[in-house]
Amino acid sequence: MEFKDLVKNRRSIRQYQSVAVREGTIHELLEIIGLSVSAINLQPWKIKVVSDQATKDRLLEACFGQNQVATCSHLLVMCADTDYPAIIDRAEKAQAAAGVPEEARQRLREMATNMAHGMTPEQQLHWSREQVFIALGNAVNGAYSLGLGACPMTMFRPEEVSRILELPDHLVPTVLVSVGYSAEDGSPKLRHPVSEIVI
Questions:
Q1: Phi-psi region of 177 (alpha: psi -120 to 50; beta: other; left: phi over 0)
Q2: Which of 11, 40, 85, 105 stands the most exposed, by the fewest C-beta atoms within 10 Å?
Q3: Can you tell me the distance from the alpha carbon of 52 to that of 61, in angstroms, rounded to the nearest whole number?
Q4: How far is Cα of residue 160 from the mean position of the Cα atoms in its chain?
Q5: Three-class SS of residue 171?
């Protein structure tokens, strides 16, 4: 399928078949998300994958009763990571493994370190959350490309989700994505024409 057709035809799906998605397919989706654009290639995100029904049921109240949380096959909890020393170390190690010269790796470390030190903790969280939302596009479009339905959700209580999932303080739930086999067509996609979005 052409990419334009993929994004044109994708819908937010809130009703799912009671069929579990293969773990191999979920792994493919996570690989697609991992290929997302990220500033300075720092990729300051982590994803908690929830598939057991008991945990999904516990999360339902924290998500204001959105039915897709409990009925999806897998729930992706996309978290903003604010542990910048670890993020920068991980980025440098990835570059080294890819054969990037030491001089270039040092430039990345200096740029990223200066950026992180120049921000307050609140600004670091905001920046990481922005990167998560960039990755969200790959999550929903990637799911559709694999024959799955998905629905992004930002209406939930992050603190409660963190408590239920026992997440460390440096990982902040930012957006949830329900994933499964669609049991509905989804609402028609209504988008503004180019003439309405260009200034």
A1: beta
A2: 85
A3: 16
A4: 18
A5: strand
Q: What is the pLDDT of residues 75-109, one digit of tens each?
A: 999 999 999 999 999 999 999 999 999 999 999 99
Are the C-beta atoms of residues 78 and 47 closer than 8 Å to each other? yes
Q: Structure tokens of 172?
A: 């902040």
Q: How far is CA 52 from CA 36, 55, 73, 150, 152, in A?
A: 27, 6, 9, 17, 19
Residue 180 phi/psi, 5-degree rounding, is 180, -175
Tell me the pLDDT tens digit for each residue of 120-145.
Answer: 999 999 999 999 999 999 999 999 99
Classify strands 149-153 and 171-180 as parallel, antiparallel or unpaired.
antiparallel
- CATH numbers and ranges of domains, the chain: 3-83+121-185 (3.40.109.10)
Here the tokens at position 39 are 């500033």
Ramachandran angles phi, psi of 157, nearest 5°: -95, 105
Map tokens 């028609």 to a residue. Answer: 188
Residues contacting residue 158 through CB under 8 Å, at least 6 positions apart: 172, 173, 174
First to last CA, the chain: 31
Amino acid at 89: D
